Amino acid sequence: MDLDKHKAISLLNKIMELELAGVVRYTHYSLMVYGYSRIPVVEWLKTQAEEGLLHAHKAGEMVTLLGGYPSLSIGPLLETHLHDLGDILRESLANESEALAAYYQLLELTQGKSVLLEDYARSLIVQEEMHADDVNKMLRRTGKTGVYEPPKQH
Ligand SMILES: [Fe+2]
């Protein structure tokens, strides 16, 4: 069966919107960190914003490759007004897992139908999972190696 281009374009646009929301979110966070660890943390957050923009651009390139129209919207931006570093990281982990789910959906849709899109989805999944691991490790307590588990959402 052929690739459902329409579905692929709408998924890619969703990914683009989520990544763009990440750009705004990380830029905001990078301005809201104070205290001893400010300098390296701000640097890290700014790098995440730049990476999000690269990811958004890549998704847009795939949209236009398929002949689609790239979204001019941006994903949801929830402002929790919590700016403790732990809160920022937990919020970012939750948002990133939404983007990761979208990349997995794209992989499922394109598997065996488009080497290009399948490869793209896989490589982004690897990057996003490595990123989630960075955040997860920052949320662990020193001396403990167990994986951080986010609290269950109701
Ligand atoms: Fe990303």
UniProtKB/TrEMBL annotation:
One of its GO terms (biological process) is intracellular iron ion homeostasis. Keywords: Iron, Iron storage. One of its GO terms (molecular function) is heme binding. Gene3D superfamilies: 1.20.1260.10. InterPro entries: Ferritin-like, Ferritin-like_diiron, Ferritin-like_SF, Ferritin_DPS_dom. GO terms for cellular component: cytosol. Residues 2-146 form the Ferritin-like diiron domain. This is Bacterioferritin. It comes from Nitrosovibrio tenuis.
